Amino acid sequence: MPESGTKSPRERYRAQVRGEIKERAWEQIATAGASALSLNAIAKQLGMSGPALYRYYAGRDELITELVRDAYQSLADAIRAAFDAGADVTGLAHEWRRWALEDPHRYLLVFGTPIPGYRAPDDVTAIASRIMAVLIDAFAAHTFESPATPFDAHLDSHRQWAADHPAPSAVLHRALTLWTRLHGILSLEVAGHFAGMGFDPALLFAAELDALLGH
Amino acid sequence: MPESGTKSPRERYRAQVRGEIKERAWEQIATAGASALSLNAIAKQLGMSGPALYRYYAGRDELITELVRDAYQSLADAIRAAFDAGADVTGLAHEWRRWALEDPHRYLLVFGTPIPGYRAPDDVTAIASRIMAVLIDAFAAHTFESPATPFDAHLDSHRQWAADHPAPSAVLHRALTLWTRLHGILSLEVAGHFAGMGFDPALLFAAELDALLGH
DNA sequence: ATCGATCGGTTACAAGTTATCACGAAGACT
DNA sequence: AGTCTTCGTGATAACTTGTAACCGATCGAT
């Protein structure tokens, strides 16, 4: 977030307070989860009492929406940076996992059970498309001798989720499959469903990655 | 739940009210999600006011815990029934999906973001083991020529999650993979993350199933 | 059959939450 | 300086979960 230079001091102060609010919100989410987020507690932590916070965010939903957007953007940045640094699909997948485990509640806020009231803002789907585009680019380097499945044919005419990326539909399929398979493992791991099972989730993750990338 | 015959009328009444409470709770969860569950509203719907509900459930956590247990048991029964009716792995997977889509919030209550305070009761992991055992039995009918992965070796010494099922670790691996891959798709679908993407989730589901069962 | 303890339900209350309103103080701009 | 927007305040409303005290009906035992 550079380039916040030419602004009125009022707006700079406002932006800074909004940032502090989000910071405290993330602290609360990291410890107690998103549904335990308390605007009152945040305000108290910042030294101001109760309704002052409503000058900065219209309500709980708006704050959460912005947190979701930030989290999405954070994932997009991490994936993009890894790709620009030369990471292949395996590298992107491990970066994805690192990002998920770094803050489990953040991952669940983005990909987990949706908050009852709120609806995803439109720009979030744009960020998602950008993430998928990076995955597709990474897969485009590989070559696959994959038999065309019925789903591949279906994808040929349904590719707006990938920002109409010109890659062949088999590649789109791979990218989509990478997403769903990684999410299957990561969401279960992050939600603690592997807890009492004994095996090492990292090994399962690696095995799934190997299986996808041509056994 | 047969064999609830020889009970004191007090206990029968109590059991019936507890059942009605859970019914209303499921209605609320199905419409507004688990985090919007209101004990007051449930009590009001049942004609009794507020704190009377605490005679039946010690608090929110205990009610949710029982709902989670019931949902788990419901899935276990559905899978078990399909298996006993002769369903193969494909049939079990579709039954799993049918169960998930039948009540999305129920699926998310079990496999989604965990509720902040509550912890999964011990018997839930036992039910999970029973489900996994059915999956493993279904896979045991298949034969695989799979190269032993490092994860397979790891699973050989970490199989208590499958109730120490005697199947070879490659089969355990398949069953575990089925779970995580199906959950990856189903959780994203149920949480609405495929909403604006355009493609048909059912075809993606079928494609993943085909890919897993030996392309 | 009467007596007594337990159970079920009630109202009242405490401590929280989100959110709105009306007001005062302080900075910013003309 | 004067005005005007913004920020923070306390008061208030309508909620929530959960506890405490009380009262009546029912069930079990004598």
Q: What does the overall shape of chain A look like?
A: globular
| Oligomeric state of shown chains | homodimer
**Biggest beta sheet attributes of chain A:** none
Structural class of chain A: mainly alpha
CATH topology of the largest domain in chain A: Tetracycline Repressor, domain 2
| Fourth-level CATH superfamily of the largest domain in chain A | Tetracycline Repressor, domain 2
SSE blueprint and pairings:
Two copies of one chain form a homodimer.
Chain A lengths: L8 H24 L6 H7 L14 H25 L4 H14 L1 H8 L10 H19 L9 H7 L12 H22 L10 H12 L3
Helix pairs in contact in A: 1-2, 3-4, 3-5, 3-6, 4-8, 6-8, 7-8, 8-9
The structure holds a DNA duplex (30 and 30 nucleotides).
Tags for this entry?
homodimer; 215 residues; mainly alpha; Arc Repressor Mutant, subunit A; Tetracycline Repressor, domain 2; 2 domains; DNA-binding; transcription regulation (chains A, B); transcription cis-regulatory region binding (chains A, B)
